[in-house]
Protein: Thiolase N-terminal domain-containing protein
Organism: Calcidiscus leptoporus
Amino acid sequence: RNVVLSSSLPISVPGTTVDRQCGSSQQAIHFGAMAVMSGMQDVVIAGGVEVMSKLPIGVNIGDGVYGQPNSPTVQDRFGPSGFYSQFTGAELTASKYGITREEMDLFAVQSHSRAVAANAEGRFDGEIVPVEGRTKLGEAFAHVRDEGVRPGTNLEKLSGLETLVSLHVCPPPADCPGGRVTAGNASQISDGAAAVLICNEEGLRKLGGAE
C-alpha cells in the first residue's frame, strides 16, 4: 500500500499490504494471480520490499517496550522460544526429506555459479533497475547487481562453515543435533525489492498492449 501511495499511480488505484514474513512477496503474487484468473481484476502489480540491514533479526520476538508479541495461548501451543525459528524449520524439513549438509552446500555452490555466469552474460540486465546512491565517504555508485551473489564460492569454503545449530543460533531438533544449515547455504541478510505485472487479455487491451 505504501508503494502505491508513494508512486505516480492515480489515487483511485487500490493497494494493500501483505505480511507473511519471508513469503510476503510470493503471497502477494499468488493473490494477484488469483484475482486476475477469477476475473475480479484485469491488471495487478504485485511485489515486495525487504530491508534486512535496518532490522536486527529477532528484534520483535521477545518481551520489549510493548510486551510479548504473542498471546499466552500461542505460547502454550508453540512455546515462547523456537516458534519463530526458521532455522529449526529448515533443519526439520531437511531431516524429513533426507537432505544432507553436502547436498545443501553443493546446491548453494551451483546456484551462485549459475548466477555469476548469468550476470556476466547480462541475462538479468532487463530485470534489474539500477539504484544510484552514495557510500559513507560520499562517493557515487550505481547498484546494478543482486548483492546476494558471491563469486568464488566453492565447496571447500562452504564445508568449513559452522552450522547455525553449533553456533546456538537456534535450538536443534532432537534428530539432527549437529545441524545442516549454515550462513553459506541459507538465504543471506540483504536489501531488495521486486515487482511483476499480472494481467489478462482484457487488461492488455485496456493498456494498449493487445489488438
Summary: The chain has two domains: 1-57+189-211, 85-188. The first helix runs from residue 2 to 6. The mean pLDDT is 86.
